[in-house]
């Protein structure tokens, strides 16, 4: 690859200041939250989505390979190709909200728009997307999340982000541009739905960028809910906790539902100090609609503080959206009936209240309470496999108790409801290793100074990596699936031979020279 020649070409397309060969910048771009790999040869940051086709075509013509990066808030080596010929496309400049269409109920954005930005723009118009963002959404982008098939806000009712997407504009491996759904016509296009013939949108979702570079994305809209209720329950027995989450899911009454094991909860409280953080209480007060209601909610949290969360068992934390107060009250009544029917004790719903008041906080959970590093591993399983998954994770971690003890690792589980039929089980691992520059970039200096710094510990990192690999197999043994595939979850190997063949043929069509993120999804070398 002629780096000099390519660099000149890219500067002509994207502007001189937006092409970087600076070693320290490249080094940062060669890491994610967990992995560190060979830095890309160049980094290009387009100013508009319209520059993408020429950028991709130039890189392919010059013999380079391409990785797209959104906010960089992932931990599965999704954009880390480990090849010296990679040009990284940083989509952080593609922040245009192209159209908010309240008549046809869609919003059209460039791929680098963050969830926080999108939520703010829609809030002002009384609208929301059904799935409405990741916890990392202050920095994480709609394009990155669509490539990972994210879940979180809105997922208990609306499922995966993929379920909320109406159409895509994608740049293929040779610079061709493809649109999907109703948008893919020259006869008066309006991108209002992806359902027209075979679902080509799906081919590019959850693809870790292996099938194309997402330039623009259209999401469905809903009217912003007018009333919210919160509920939280504690359970002594894990069986009851899992049964309650599944029953709440089947009843289709909550918008978000997170379940924490007792250990994770205590760690989270220690890590974020959420109960007594004045700023958060002010946000809760502001968020609650009326000043009196807001102050009361904030006061309840302050009084309950950490105390009500001490000595609790397995807890579920929920937010319910209603069209009006009656609607939300009805949902709350159903949730109370389900949870108390499974021996749940109602507790102060501080966590969902705080989450809703500040849905996209700075990502302080990147470090544990002791300054230790954090990385999760997950599987999404059917309701019938939820409890077995929690038990299988316990059994797996018990089998590796010596490794855990040797390296001082700590871990806990979170269960997140995804639609009516599935649960995301996430194992959160904390380990003592040097915090990478990549992690420090996202955190405030004062916060960093308040946390212990540990020396580099490659053997600890390697032990965590090994545990993560084993955990991913635990979930697949239960018929589970993964989002965030990248290079951390073996995708192609686990597909049926017929599916493998089809995927390889499709990849050859959309990426004839094999330049798009080779190795992601195990496609390409
Ligand atoms: C503190 C924290 C909280 C998190 N919370 C959640 C959560 O609630 N739910 C959840 O699902 N995940 C969560 N994550 C994981 C991660 O942040 C999300 O998956 C997020 O969607 C990643 O978006 P990003 O823009 O940072 O993507 P990146 O990390 O930049 O990229 C992710 C993948 O997408 C590809 N990609 C990026 N942009 C494009 C594009 N335009 N075209 C093609 N491919 C592209 C990359 O090549 C890579 O494979 C969290 C992570 C952290 C650190």
Q: How would you characterize this protein structure?
A:
By secondary structure, the chain is an alpha+beta fold. It has 4 domains: 101 residues, Uridine Diphospho-n-acetylenolpyruvylglucosamine Reductase, domain 2 (2-Layer Sandwich); 127 residues, Uridine Diphospho-n-acetylenolpyruvylglucosamine Reductase, domain 3 (2-Layer Sandwich), CATH 3.30.465; 131 residues, Alpha-Beta Plaits (2-Layer Sandwich); 113 residues, Alpha-Beta Plaits, CATH 3.30.70. It is built from 19 helices and 18 strands. A 7-stranded antiparallel sheet has the order 15-12-14-13-17-18-16, sandwiched between helices. A 5-stranded antiparallel sheet has the order 5-6-10-8-9. The protein has a 4-stranded mixed sheet with strand order 1-2-4-3, with helices on both faces. A hairpin with a 5-residue loop joins strand 8 and strand 9. The chain is globular, with a radius of gyration of 23 Å. It starts with a helix and ends in a 15-residue tail after the last helix. The model has no long low-confidence stretch (mean pLDDT 93). Flavin-adenine dinucleotide binds next to strand 3, helix 5 and strand 10.
